[in-house]
Amino acid sequence: TTKRSPPPQPQPLHMMYGGQGNASGFLHELQTSLKSVLLNAPLDTSLHIHYMVDGVAQARLQDILKKDILIQKWRTRQPLHITTYNVQQYVEDWKAVVNETYSAFPPKKDRFRHTIGSYFRLFAHNVLPPDVKEFVYLDSDAVIVANLNHLWKFLQEPTKNNRSYFFRWGERKCAGFLVINAPLLPKFWEQLQTYDLMALGKGGNLGDQRFFKAIQVNDPEHVGMLPGIYDVSVMNGEWRKNKGQILEQHLPQGAAVLHFNGGGTSKASAFLDHPHLKDANRFPGTWGLAHSYAHMPWRWARLQVASQIGPDESGFKVFVQHH
Length: 323
Hints:
Blueprint: E1 13-19, H1 24-39, E2 47-53, H2 55-68, E3 75-76, E4 80-86, H3 91-101, E5 134-138, E6 142-144, H4 149-156, E7 167-169, E8 177-181, H5 185-192, H6 208-218, E9 223-225, H7 247-250, E10 257-259, H8 270-273, H9 275-278, H10 290-295, H11 298-306, E11 316-317, E12 319-322
Parallel strand pairs: 1-2, 1-5, 2-4, 4-12, 7-9
Antiparallel strand pairs: 3-11, 5-8, 6-10, 7-8
């Protein structure tokens, strides 16, 4: 009898966070956002979460994963990998690249309002394994509120240009949630050097968002779009001028991501300090859904994740590694 080959394993969903330091607000955001991801992990494929961080942040993440989350005790429906990368050795070189790219602007213009950590994702090709192609990046002040199976399936759909997309984002062009093509990042940087970044305006902040917008304006064929349910941030949309209202009216199909646009002058966690969340009764059915992730104990989250495992299955231990 001919021995049958096992069926091919589906492509995993890769997700990424970036950042630096051990500020309590930042770490609270990371934990809240991670909790939302774990509770909405894809039902039909494995999940690999990547953290690009400096040495200080990596040390704290190791403690949080082991002592607070007790990740070694978790079991999941599908395989789950969590990898942290200490990118401290690259930071000065990456700062130099950013400064060179913005060399036409006056030195007093702040390139790192959100710290160099906000640029880490644009250097992911230097640290990610070569088998990682597209990855989903989300800011630490964003939570997932729908199962990621939908996004994973969307990214598997072949389109005419998806192999040439540098990144994909929503129609409102917010860089807090997007999909990045890691192998094409060197080309991304090459293209940036050919643009007049001043043409996008001399005012405003200099940051990673301007780089994405420059690609959108100059080479739109390299930019893909994500469905509207992944394009929900406080500062981008009809609800901005209405102070958070009318979200449900403009998204009757629901939202998959809620991005709170923190990271300004406040160092507090957006999930504790944001005006939309300070009053628990203000937006209970929309923005207020983030409360459950911000305040749910990790032990309760572990139980919810374990409850997704089938009755005749033992689930998977979480694989954690640090580089």
